[in-house]
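Appendix B. Extra example for self-study. Work through it before the problem class; the solution is given directly after the inputs so you can check yourself.
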Amino acid sequence: MFEDRDSELDEEIRSHIEMAARDGVRSGHSTEDAHNRAIREFGNVGLVKEVTRSMWAKASWEVFTQDVRYGLRVLAKSPGFSLVAILTLALGIGANTAVFSVVNGVLLNPLAFPHPDRLVVMFTEMPSFKNASISYPNFEDWRRMNRTFSTMAAYRESGFDLTGHGEPERVTGEMVSAGFFEVLGVNPILGRTFSADEDRLGANPTAMISEGLWKRKYGSDPNIIGQRMDLNGTGRTIIGVVPSSFHLHIQNFQRGGPANEVYLPMGEFNEPFFHNNRSAGWGMDAIGRMRDGITFQQAKEDMDRVSRELASAYPDINGGKKARLVPLSEEMVGRVRPVLLVLLGAVFFVLLISCANVANLLLARSTARQREFAIRVAVGAGESRIVRQLLTESILLALIGGALGQLLAKFGTAAAIAAMPVNMPRADDIGLDTRVLLFTLCTSILAGIAFGLAPAIKTSRANVGATLKEAGRSVSGMRSRTQAVLVVGEMAMALVLLTGAGLMIRTLFALWGLDPGFNPHNVLEFSVSGPPSYKSSPDAVRAAHRELHDKLASLPGVESVTLSWGARPLQGDNEDYFWIVGRPMPALNQLPMTVEYDVGSDYSKTMQVPLKRGRFFSESDDERTPAVAVIDEAFAKKYFPNEDPIGHYIDLNTDPQAQEKVRNPQIVGVVGHVNQWGLESDASFPLQAQMYIPISQAPDSALKRGGFSPDVYVRTARAGVPTFDEMRRRALEMNGELVVYAARSEDDVLATDMGQQRFSMILLAVFAGVALLLAVIGIYGVLSYVVGQRTQEIGVRMALGAQRTNVLAMVLGGGARLTLIGIGLGVVSALALTRLMASMLFGVKPSDPLTFGAVALILAAIAAFACLLPAHRATRVDPIVALRYE
Amino acid sequence: MSPQSEKYQNRIELLQGTLDLLILQTLMWGAQHGYGISQVIRAQSGDVLQVDTGSLYPALHRLERQKWIKSEWRLTDNNQRAKFYQLTSAGKKRLGEERSRWNQMSDAIGAILANRPEEV
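Solution. Structure tokens for the complete assembly:
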């Protein structure tokens, strides 16, 4: 009957007044008079309605919309306050959303494979290597002998020259066993995957291509299946197209490298050594899918059994080796988890500081609203009602801030992804999804409660009588204490963030200051790949090496050039088993390994690897002269601790399965150790020994196998002169079919190696900067407020003879107290928290006193600066005016 | 001074909680609207108790929320629409409780007041 209770109440009151008026008429008053009396007697209609309404058991959303409408009006009435609060919150919530969307994409979202928790990556574990590659014969046995995997497949990275279709180019690809895509549950968008029949020696050559290559090179030709493509000079039939949604980033599978464009069947790899040599790993790892109901632990035990059986079957080769299993998700994101969690923690601190600042703003503003709430309490609103109203306002602020923050996060996330190291796994999976939106919503609401609750309770408890009578001085004392607590908290959290950022900066400086063992400045590297015709003769390859070297060396601006093969510092590795000729040979599985670099005679000059003893190679060291080698200091120290290594011979023919004998080189020199495994990790890597062999003395078999495919290092007088393009053109002069690719400066190689630390450093520095700014605003606000409150007191003091310097000292002292307590708390918290980032640090302890000291000083100095303005204002207080004010 | 304001002077502020009792008691005699309730209380107390509308209506709405009374719109004898309140069975039970509480309280207060020193 009534649209709502409000009009029903109106009607009820109207009928009351009408009945009263009718009685008035009956007792002799005029109609008009009676009506007026009835209204007067009824009292304040508005107030009666308001109080009556408050008795209704309202649907909570009704109260809520009423509060929201009221809250919006309040916020609109003080746009300055609202803007500052919203921006502060947007910053805090936005930063949290951005980092959370990264954490969500990388760590929380399951991998985009069916039942990803069933997938396990496998390596060979041996004393000097945790993640060594698997030899093909061992892999075949693993696959055959295990009882816990439904399928298992191997993969190895490889580059290929794609010719016969437009410009020759280098594409990256992967050799995979049949069943590889089935293990992962990836279906081709066109055609099919490799059959077991195609995955064996002598099979018809086939290939799968990526959706990217299909679009880029073949114009998305729908009839691509069955067409021919030339890879490394072999014609292959294209049998399938792999969707671009397929992302896998693990060791030996496009981790940090460019996207794969071709896939070849592993078993058809025409390299007898690969198929027959059980001891040599060819950069091959494996992935398997555990059977349903099998736990990771069971799979591990099963593979331990397989490893034991293989070790007893081939004790020389497999003794001391075993399968190492890692869950796929762990292998993909395990390395970045600590970094991301530390960043999430850091950004949460930023949010807490924003909340503290907004809480401070609210407290400062509550003076102005004291009367408003006193009146509401006087007409019957309970304490909880007012807290609820104030909380609604806070949450409104936070939600608006959150919406804006979401927008900031969108750009922030894009910026973060751009700043992300190339080897950040799953960067493609980062984005805004429901979970991120939900996170922002919850964060906003919780933030609203966090910063709104204390001020709301304080405001609602304000002494009603005192407030209505006077300005409510009693409340302000209580409030400034709360503010002080908040500021101390802000200072402490800012110190923690600054310490984190400081430690990362020290880490980067330590990495920058680290001598990588070579001089990366003004060195450009690139790779060259020649057509397979070179493979016919080792002499042709050697001649091509010399020609390429001479052509590049004669370019103006080039200081020196060297070709290289095998291992490359900070990039690819290549190892050899060896022994020292003349010493009693250990068991085969006890043989040591060394990193092997095959380099030109100008290598030490180009890379500026310092020569410590003897000599480096010269141009006269070639295939016709005695075989020579240079070792590094680590090699010399470990294997020649008490004697001069020069003159000794290195035995490189330890493998009984090897098809040919190579010449055992004589050590002619010792050079400095080069950082091979990564700036941060090299020193702790078990394999330290390094050996150099002249590329001209590389065995014929290796030259035939590899053909003309060197890496090139060029040192120029000035960076960028000559350009890579000039070098490329120069190289193409010798053969137009060469593919010259993957140019990078060595500085860039180093920078990439530090990518993760730099990423963490940038983000932590940004967070710390925001935290510092907010904390400084906080302390400035509180001191300004206190000075404002104490104007009379300061006036009295000055009237009684206090000097300006006393007043200055008093205010600064107050600020200093807050700052010092904050710094003290911050140092204690930071000592506890920075330990969590130990794994991200290099060359600096989590409790580094220098960082702690510097950060505390910076914070103290900036806080002092923020205190100066209010302190100065206090000294300007005119005692007369201040006293009259009282 | 007009008689009206004189009466106002004699008015007694209702003790907290007693209004509920009076309203429930008034409704014992049948359904009544707000104006009627206030008139009955005033008349039955000999014009001493005057119920403030600012207390009456919140109390009625609260009692209704507590399901001790219920309301419906009806016509008065004068053919006017008004909202009538009437006791629910829960309300009757509540009235009994309130009444015995009141009796207890007034006995207690009476006992205290009866106990006076000799000299006064």
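Self-check: Confidence is low (pLDDT under 50) at residues 470-476 of chain A. If your reasoning did not lead you there, revisit section 3.
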